[in-house]
Amino acid sequence: MARDADATPDPNVTSEPTTSPDPLPDAERDAAALAATLREARERRDDAVDAVEEHGESTLSTVRDAVQRADRLLDRYVDSATGTGDFQAYVEFQGEFAAVVEDLDEDVPGRDAFERANEAVDGRRLSESDFERAREALSPARELAGRLAEREAAEAALHDAERDATRRVDALDDRIAELERLVELGEADLTAPTGELREPIAAYNDAVGDAFDDFRRESSARELLAFVADAAETPFVDYAAPPPELLAFLDSSPADGAALPDLLEYADYSASKLDHYVDDPGAFTARVRPHRTYLERLSAEPLTVDWPPPAAETLRFQREELVSVVAKFAPEPTVARARELREAADHPEYERLRRAAEAEAELSDEEVERVASGEAAAELAEARDRRESLAATLDETGEGE
C-alpha cells in the first residue's frame, strides 16, 4: 500500500546515506581497480618467485623434464601396454618408466611422487586405470614443475598490469590538462569588451588579405614567389618556402612575367595551346604542374593574426615582423594597420581580454555552466587524486615515472 506523502516519518527507520555521483567519466573511473590489480599482480609475482627459489630453478627444471618424460610415456603406451596388448610394448614401457625414476637423485623434491607412479604401473598386467593412478601420483611433482610456468605467467601478468596502469596515468594526465584548461577559461570574465582587441586585429587581417589578393593578381609569379621565399625566413610568418626547381624555372622562362592566376591557367592548357605562351611546354609541365597545389594555396593567411590572439609579447614580436614584411607589397594604409597592432598588444587589460576571447571561442554554454557550478573543479580534484594514487602504486612496484 502506498504511504501517505504527508505521513510522519518513522523515527525507528534509518534512511540510507546518500552518496555523490562519481564526477569522472567511465574512462577515468577505474584507477582504483587498476591499482588493486597492480598490487595483486605484484604479490602473485613475489609469491611465484619465492616458490621457485625454495628449491631453485635448476632443480625444478629437472623435475619438469622428468614429469614431461613420464607423461609422454604414459600417453604413448596407454593403448599398447594395457590389457592383452603388445607384450613387447609392455616391457619397454615399464623399463623406460622405471628409468625416469632412477635418473632422479634421491634428494630431488617430488621423487617420491615418481616412485608412487612407478608402483602404480609395476604390475604383471596393466589397465587404463593403472595409468590414471600413475598420473594422479605424479600430481605433487607436476605442481613443483608448474612453479616455473607460474612464475613466467605471474611476471607477464605484472607487466600487463604495469602497462595498463601507466596508460591510465597518461590518460589521467591528459584529462587533468583538459580540466585545468576548462577551469582556467571558465573563470575568465565573459563580460570583458573583447572587441577592443578584435577590431584592430580584424581590420589588419582584412586589409592584408585584400592587399595580398591584389599582389597575387597583379605581380608576376616570379616576384610573388620571391617575396614568399623571403617571408618564409621570418619566424612569425609561416610560409612554406617555394620549391627551388620552381623558382629556377620561373627565373629562366619567358613565362616569368605571367601573374600567378595566369600561370595556373596555363597549367590546364594542352601542349599545343601551351606552346603559344611558353618556349618549352614540356619543361613548364614538368616544373609547374607538380606544384600546382602549393601555388593554389598561397594566400595571406601566414600574414594574419590569429583570433583569439597570442600572448601580448608574442603579438609585439609578430607585429614588428609583419610591418617589415607587409611593407614589401602592401600600400601604406595596410602597413599602418600592421603598426596599430602594437597598440592592441599594449592594451592595459590585454591578458584579461585575451583570456575572455579564448573562453568565448573554446567553451560551450554547457562547459561554462560546469565551471560555474563547481562540477569541473570537482572532476579536476578527483582526477588529480586518482592520478596521484595510481602513480604511487606504480612507484611501489618499481615502475615509477
UniProtKB/TrEMBL annotation:
Q: List all Low complexity biased stretches.
A: 371-380
Compositional bias per record (Basic and acidic residues), positions renumbered to this chain: 41-57
Q: Residue spans with biased composition (Acidic residues)?
A: 359-368
Q: Which UniProt keywords apply?
A: Coiled coil
Pfam families for the chain: DUF7118 (PF23432)
Q: Which domain of life is it from?
A: Archaea
Per UniProt, the ranges with Polar residues bias are 11-21
Start and end residues of each stretch annotated as Disordered: 1-27, 41-63, 357-401
Q: Which InterPro entries match?
A: DUF7118
Provide the coiled-coil residue spans.
Answer: 162-189
User: What is this protein's name?
Assistant: Uncharacterized protein
